[in-house]
Amino acid sequence: MHTTSVPLASPAVGATTAVHPRRWWALGALALAQFLVVLDASIVNIAIPTLGADLGLGPAALAWVITAYVLPFGSLLLFGGRLADRFGHRRVFLVGTGAFLGASTLAGLATTGELLLAARALQGAAAALLAPASLALVTRLFTSTRDRARALGIWGAVAGAGSAAGVLLGGVLTAAFGWQAVFFVNVPVGILVLVAIPFLIGRDVPGKRTRLDLAGAATVTSALVVLVAGLTSAERLGFTDPLVLGLFAGAVALGAAFVVVERRAADPLVPFAIFANRSVTAGNVAMLLLGGAMVALFFALSVFLQEVMHLDALGAGLTQLPLAVALVVVAGIVPPVVARLGVRKTLAISLLVFAGGLAWLAAAPAGADFLVHVLGPTLAIGVGLGGAFVTATQLAVHGVDGGEAGLAGGLVNTSQQVGGALGMGVLATVAAARTEALTTAGASAEAALAGGFSLVFLGAAGLAVAGAVVAVAVRDRRSANSARG
Question: Does 449 score more than 50 pLDDT?
Fold first, then answer.
């Protein structure tokens, strides 16, 4: 039977639009693409030792295997979101997915460290197109409050599971097929998405023809690059190093320049009026704090399992299966809870559960046993993350006009990535100092590492608690219940 895809309109908030006939199938494809984006930020963590030995990369170069992806991804998201609003969400999504697929193939085929780092940078740039366009398409496909809540629950369950699944799949794939497999795994999924989307989502209806704010894009991208570079350098050099202080000063100066440029631009990259919507503001701040806690958690946990508990890559990956399952299950059942409690309360409760699991994990000793010291905390973490990731995203896109859906997607993804860089920069530095102090005091290597990671987990818990406070404190002026549903 021949079918034609239904084009996407650009409805204003509250407008009544036709129900897209294959929106749930399209949601599955979009969620798979976002899963790959999140997955690739964490899947290489466990593969790094094997990868480094094979390509002859030293410790500094190995750190760039992560940074080379995160840096262009986080810094280009706002521009990617605006490109999607300007040229069409489906079009930019397909371009980003195709580029991500090609860069992943290149990374898997890399025979030198330089080629691998270049491929990782291309992956990050492609992800910056794919991610905001994906979220924009979800919000445009599902226009009713109830359906959008359900859709974001499913989208968040699949996408949010990417971080947890990265540790699991990274261990399994590296042990079974080598480090190249952590990149090649993207290929079949990417092809499936590229083939499916044109049949499920029709061509974009032309939106408002606006001038691209290239000056704004250049200043904000530069500011984010310099900020992340400063945070990355702080992990090695400390926050008082002159280079680090200079980078932070440069980031502040570029950020100020961006504000000046945006206030003068006819069609700004980020219209600051969007933050008059307190739901957008609260959702992005909560995602910033959640991103900091989440990235620090998965990095520290992967190292804790291998260096403190002495699990191999496969064992470390398999121990994260309960966390991943809890995250996916809870994210999928969040919408009924939101309907009963409201998105803000659900977000706050989820973040507090997440914080409780982190604090529990911080008590794990050097001789930790998985069943006694790790299973319970990681289950609580999965439950909290599942609820928090979905509801923070839902809050951040609440009430956004269809013409700014890409911008909203870029903002919330940027918040997550910048938060991750902040969390890693600050908490990794604190952990390193604590580990060094314990080693100097005569503690064993395992005990010193456990003490350092304990501070990482406690610091991440503090970020989650702060996010819970923001969720309930920053409210819309219009109504105390404006973000419900």
Answer: yes
Residue keyed to tokens 């492609």: 126
Pick the CATH number of 23-201+269-473 from 3.20.20.140, 1.20.1250.20, 1.20.120.660, 1.20.140.10: 1.20.1250.20
Amino acid at 11: P
**Could you give the CA distance from residue 479 to residue 469 in angstroms, rounded to a whole number?**
18
Report phi then psi at 62, rounded to 5. -65, -35
Residue 473: CB partners within 8 Å, gap ≥ 6? none
pTM tops 0.90: no
> Residue 1: how many CB atoms within 10 A of its CB?
2
Smallest Cα–Cα separation from 160: which of 295, 335, 278?
A: 295
pLDDT digits (tens, 9 = 90+) for 469-481: 999 887 765 444 4
Q: What is the largest CA-CA distance in the chain?
A: 74
**What are the angstrom distances between the C-alpha of 131 and each of 3, 75, 163, 220, 221?**
28, 13, 15, 18, 16
Question: What number of H helices and E strands is found in the chain?
Answer: 18, 0
The predicted-structure confidence for 322-361, as pLDDT tens digits, reads as follows 888 888 888 778 888 888 888 899 999 999 999 999 999 9
Q: How high does pLDDT run on average in the chain?
A: 82
Judged by phi (left if over 0) then psi (alpha if -120 to 50, else beta), residue 178 lies in left
